[in-house]
Amino acid sequence: MSDHSVAHGTFVVERTYNHPVAKVWAAWADSELKRQWFGGGADNPPKVFEFRSGGRESSEGTIPNGPTFNFDVVYQDIVPNSRILYNYDMHMDGKKISVSLAAVEFWPEGRQTRLKLTEYGLFLDGLDNVAQRKEGTIGLIDQLGRFLDGQQ
Predict the structure, then answer these.
(1) Residue 90 CA to chain centroid, in angstroms?
(2) Are 12 and 116 in contact, with CB atoms under 8 Å apart?
(3) pLDDT in tens, 97-108
(4) Could you identify which of 27, 114, 130, 146 might form a hypothetical disulfide with 107, taking C-beta atoms 3.0 to 4.6 angstroms apart as the criterion?
(5) End-to-end CA distance of the chain
(6) Looking at the domain assignment, is residue 1 inside a domain?
(7) What residues pair up with 31 in beta bridges, in sequence order?
(8) Which domain covers residue 12, as residue numbers?
């Protein structure tokens, strides 16, 4: 019997932000803005950021006293101010821990924006799971909200 396994999981995270779609969209589409909320920080810009259909994004980050994660994206479809479809691999300390397909959808609701992120993941060899990924994604999406609220 193999020590290798695949666990399947899907989750959805929805938020409404008190900002127009164009502002929320820009936080995903502009590398400088995304770096400020997505976790790269000033000392750790993305290695690659090609925000277009067929483009790539690649970043790396280390948790204090913890592992190093690599996030490697291929953007499959981008419709400005409407949707971002992408697939990505996640590595932890050089080991592939997951392969995912994600959709981020944006809807105007008056002066606000409703965002829905849906992800289908394949979590490998017990190194990650859907509950951990959802928790991490909720943290990022909430961080986006704090970032948007802090902008002028």
Answers:
(1) 11
(2) yes
(3) 999 999 999 999
(4) 114
(5) 57
(6) no
(7) none
(8) 6-150
Taking only the tens place, the pLDDT of each residue in 47-75 is 899 999 999 999 888 888 889 989 999 99
Predicted confidence (pLDDT) per residue in 18-40, tens digit: 999 999 999 999 999 998 998 75
Amino acid at 22: A
Using CA atoms in the order 85, 91, 92, 97, what is the torsion angle rounded to 10 degrees? 80
Determine phi and psi for 76, rounding to 5 degrees.
Answer: -90, -35
Total structural domains in the chain?
1
Three-state DSSP class for 21? helix
The conformation of residue 6, written as its DSSP 8-state character, comes to: E
Which DSSP string corresponds to 72-122?
EEEEEEEETTTEEEEEEEEEETTEEEEEEEEEEEEEEETTEEEEEEEEEEE
The predicted model scores a pTM of 0.92
